[in-house]
Design goal:
By secondary structure, the chain is α/β, with parallel strands linked by helices. The chain contains 18 helices and 7 strands. Helix 1 runs antiparallel to helix 2.
Length: 458
């Protein structure tokens, strides 16, 4: 039975009061326009005779995306997604369109369903082609943004180098180091290309700063998480990934500390998306490309000002990561060489379904059983948080466990999320009123965060 929150789901029908409305009228058309721009840029290089068919297909995809933008802006009916390639979830989306009249128009459908539908239908446009089947229209945007992250990357590399040279921390040092790296991982989520469509180089560096006071963490369950983690000995920890680039880098820094310097963990499992998703979500290709790019001494631009010392620190750290991947200490939940369009099975395909995670126990029991092998599952970022909480308009004081529905108690959950959408739960009495006085758009600015923990009880 589907879990239905007792409060409305976020939707553009809430007009200017919701970020969902801004997404529908402004952000989604901007994102789709960026795909047109990327194809148009590449078309300039398709001048040879042998490229004629590829260029023709590209022009058709551009036309189709332009029609897609028109549909959104004019609140047209959501059309069925053609079954033209993996993942095999088209029947799920189309069944919802057939059976749920609330999900059939852009301005009345729930924000979560409409946004998942948008990226799944965009994928279908490329999957139906001959020459663009494995094309990621967001790849260059992801990589260019990552190149703007040099300052934060080398600072963390130097920090890890110093700790590794020192050796394993004393028992009394473990808590402070764990807190440092979990907060780095938390604030690494601030850069989200699907939600922050107008980022400048300076904006990126400011958002990636981890020097923030605890008052910016509106719900902070780090003590409860430490009580759990500090009891672990050589266990498995999973990450349900969010953004590639700098956020993935901070995820790997935390994984590195856990494997190299802590006694808590001997295996890290990373769960990616199988298709381009919400602009910047990690795919298997993003993961392998991140490692190879970081090992390329020319990846970051010369004006980043990276010193030889910083390059050596970064090289040493990433070579250690590559060794952990070869040894299986860090692994993806799917084959890291998986090509877009190849099947990843239930364990991977559920992440790009339109369902909230409350449905995971009933609809993805194989994935649930796999996650139950983990001593802690870290859900990164805003979309995962929206799916954990069903993206409903819960009162902010609603306990986090309540919003999980049937997933509550099934696995050890730690959600690390900077606030970039309307839903926010688990806050103490008076916290919403306090932050409202401080900043009106606190729910979506990326400046505030929530750290939410729910233990396994079943």
């Amino acid at each position: 039975m589907v879990f239905k929150p007792p409060f409305p789901l976020s939707s553009a029908s809430q007009k200017e009061e919701s970020f969902a409305y801004e997404s529908t009228v402004k952000r989604w058309p901007q994102i789709l326009t960026s795909c047109i721009d990327e194809l148009a840029r590449l078309n300039g290089d398709l001048l040879a005779k042998e490229d004629e068919l590829k260029l023709k297909e590209s022009k058709q995809i551009i036309q189709d995306i332009a029609g897609f933008i028109y549909e959104i802006r004019h609140d047209r009916t959501l059309t069925p997604i053609p079954d033209v390639g993996l993942p095999k979830d088209v029947a799920i989306y189309n069944s919802i369109l057939e059976t749920d009249p609330d999900q059939t128009k852009w301005f009345t459908a729930s924000w979560l369903f409409a946004e998942c539908y948008l990226y799944r239908r965009l994928r279908a446009l490329f999957a139906a082609s001959t020459y663009w089947k494995t094309f990621d229209p967001f790849l260059s945007q992801k990589m260019n943004t990552f190149k703007s992250s040099a300052k934060g990357v080398v600072a963390l590399a130097l920090s890890m180098q110093a700790l590794v040279e020192r050796g394993k921390p004393k028992e009394e040092e473990l808590h402070a180091e764990w807190t440092k790296f979990i907060e780095v991982c938390l604030w690494g989520n601030a850069t989200d290309l699907s939600l922050l469509t107008q980022l400048t180089h300076e904006d990126i560096q400011k958002l990636q700063s981890t020097e923030r006071g605890s008052e910016f963490i509106l719900k902070n369950d780090l003590k409860q998480v430490w009580d759990r983690v500090s009891q672990l000995k050589g266990e498995r920890i999973d990450f349900v990934l969010d953004n590639s680039g700098f956020e993935l880098f901070t995820d790997l820094v935390l994984a590195d500390w856990l494997l190299t310097l802590s006694p808590f963990c001997s295996e890290i499992v990373l769960h990616p998306k199988l298709i381009p998703w919400f602009v910047s979500d990690v795919t298997p290709h993003d993961f392998t490309l991140t490692l190879s790019s970081l090992l390329d001494p020319d990846f970051f631009p010369p004006d980043a000002g990276i010193t030889d010392e910083e390059k050596l620190a970064l090289k040493g750290m990433v070579e250690r990561w590559a060794r952990y991947v070869e040894e299986g200490k860090i692994r993806l939940s799917v084959d890291k060489s998986l090509v877009m369009g190849e099947t990843g099975g239930e364990e991977a395909e559920f992440w790009t379904s339109p369902y909230a995670f409350s449905e995971l126990p009933s609809l993805a029991p194989t994935l649930l059983a796999e996650l139950q092998k983990s001593s802690l599952v870290i859900f990164k970022g805003d979309l995962n948080y929206r799916k954990l909480t069903s993206d409903a308009h819960w009162p902010t004081t609603t306990p986090f466990e309540t919003t999980l529905g049937p997933l509550a108690g099934e696995i050890e959950i730690l959600s690390l999320r900077t606030c970039k959408a309307d839903v926010c739960v688990g806050l103490g009495e008076g916290v919403e009123e306090w932050v409202e006085k401080r900043e009106k758009n606190w729910r979506v600015s990326g400046k505030y965060a929530v750290v939410s923990y729910s233990p396994r009880t079943k």
